[in-house]
Structure formats: C-alpha cells, structure tokens
Amino acid sequence: MDKVVSSAREAVEGIVDGSSLAVGGFGLCGIPSVLIAEIHDLGVKDLEAISNNCGVDDWGLGVLLKAKRISRMVASYVGENKEFERQYLHGELELELTPQGTLAEKLRAGGAGIPAFYTVTGAGTQVAEGGLPWRYSPDGAVAVASPKKETKTFTVDGEDKQFVLERAIAADFGLVRAWKGDRHGNLVFRQSARNFNPLAAMSGRVTIAEVEQLVEPGELDADAVHLPGIYVQRVLPLTPEQAAEKRIERRTVRPRGTEAAPAGAGAGSESKEA
After folding, report:
1. Residues 100 and 233 occupy one common structural domain
2. Predicted TM-score of the model (pTM)
3. How confident is the model at residue 271, as a pLDDT?
4. What pairing do the DSSP bridges indicate for beta strands 133-136 and 94-97?
5. CA-to-CA distance for 258 and 262, rounded, in angstroms?
6. 185 backbone φψ class: left, alpha, beta (φ>0; ψ -120 to 50)
C-alpha cells in the first residue's frame, strides 16, 4: 500500500480541536517540525501533546504552545522553554509530569495493546500517592492535582517491593520524523534522532511520518528497519530544504587552544541533531 501523501496539509488531515498528539523527538533532535508547522497553520486548538518536552520558545512544539494551541501536556521535562513554564505556573496549561522511562513505556504499551503495566518508578512518592499539581489557578493555588494510583507489592529477588500501576497512552495521532522511509511506511531513524520517535509512532492510532529521504519498497534492508510500516499510515517526503533545516538547542564549546577536559570532568561539547 502506497502511504505517501502529496502535501503537509494532506498529511495532517483529520487533526481537529481537542486531538491528542504523540510527538517524537528529544529536545530539538528528531522533531517533526514540518508537521508541527502545518498544524499551527491549520489553526486547531485545545490539543493534548504527549512528548518528552515541548520544544523551545520559537521551534518545535513551542510554536503551538506560544500560540495557545496546546491545553494539556504530558511530558517529562519542562526546561529550555520559558513560555512552557510561564503558562503552567499561571494556570493556562495543564501539565502531567511523567518520569521519562515511564513515559516511554506508556507510549510503547499503547502501541502494543497493553492497557497498563507495573513499574517501581515513582513508588513511595507523589507520582503514586497523588497530589502533584497538574493545573494551577490564576491565584497560584492547585486547581487540578494528580490522582492516587494503584500500587501492588511484588517479591523481586527475595525482596518485597512496591510497584505503581501506569496506564498506557494511545493518542489520536502520532507525529514523527525519520531519516529514511519507503512508500509502505517502513522507517529508519538516524543515530540519536531515533529517541522517542518509534514509541510515538506506536502510540498513534493514525501515525504520520515526515521523512528526509523517500525510497522505494525493497530498498531498505529489512534488518535495518527501526519501525515497520504497520505502525505508519501516512508518509510525507520532505524537500531537501526542509530536511536540512535543523536547529541546535544549546551549543557549548570549549575555547580554541584549550585542552579537552578528561572524560566525566564536565568538558564542553557541541550538541548536534543527528
């Protein structure tokens, strides 16, 4: 089945007010920036976004956030986006902070048909006991708090441990960016840009992939495919200009002529998107 669409507008068809979006990427690495921009132009609002973070103030999901199109966010990290912090603290945005590994598994479970799972992460904390502020009121009081979650004790290696029941996430749409993809939706991600992308794709009931290089079926080595096409419904080939537009979230380099610090000593590095 040929899943290629001819335009970004055709790719995001069906996304309406109130849709939930599982969005791949980590920081600015591997984010589906073309699809996000098209959703912005589409004008939909009251979106729920599920992603590791919310981009930065002027790129990635930060574009939708700045335009007040996102009403609820499920994420594991708030940093690097001042508008994200401002909206949350002023009661304009509901935020369900989720441990990063738990968020990854919630997305994977949603795609695998697993309704819930137990994890030790968060046991004995407000993650399990409830009371985390999901939304503030304008006066700073907690308007909506996280509910208490079911817990269960299991014996692991002869020791009783408490585990937290976490529910899977199945989003209306999955938005991802791949290095290569074929017309059947089989995808290959490049290096660190793989990150949350396969998981977000699995979570989406309808998954849309923007691909930097479109190839014909059979050109991808089957052993090299990171995500099979069964999880992907639409493929949007990017232009060379769109594929090349990538941003560095934070660049840190050591001064010229200085010695590199030993490993683990906090030496500066240049963070690049793969």
Report:
1. yes
2. 0.88
3. 42
4. unpaired
5. 12
6. left
Count of beta carbons in the 10 Å neighbourhood of residue 218 = 10
- What are 53's two structure tokens? 């973070």
Express each pLDDT in 48-106 by its tens digit.
999 999 998 889 999 999 999 999 999 999 877 889 999 999 999 999 999 999 999 99
Phi, psi of 29 (to 5 degrees): -90, 120
Within-domain flag for 259: no
pLDDT tens profile 116-131: 999 999 999 999 999 9
126 CB contacts (<8 Å, ≥6 apart)? 132, 146
Average pLDDT for 12-18 = 98
Backbone dihedral angles phi then psi of residue 45, each to the nearest 5 degrees: -140, 180
Q: Which residues contact 56 (CB under 8 A, 6 or more apart)?
A: 28, 62, 80, 81, 249
Dihedral class, residue 239 (left if φ above 0, else alpha if ψ from -120 to 50, else beta) = beta
The amino acid sitting at 194 is: R
Q: Is residue 263 part of a domain?
A: no
Q: What does the block give as tokens for 190?
A: 């490049």
Range of the domain at 211: 1-115+171-252+268-272
CA distances for 2 relative to 34, 37, 174, angstroms: 21, 24, 18
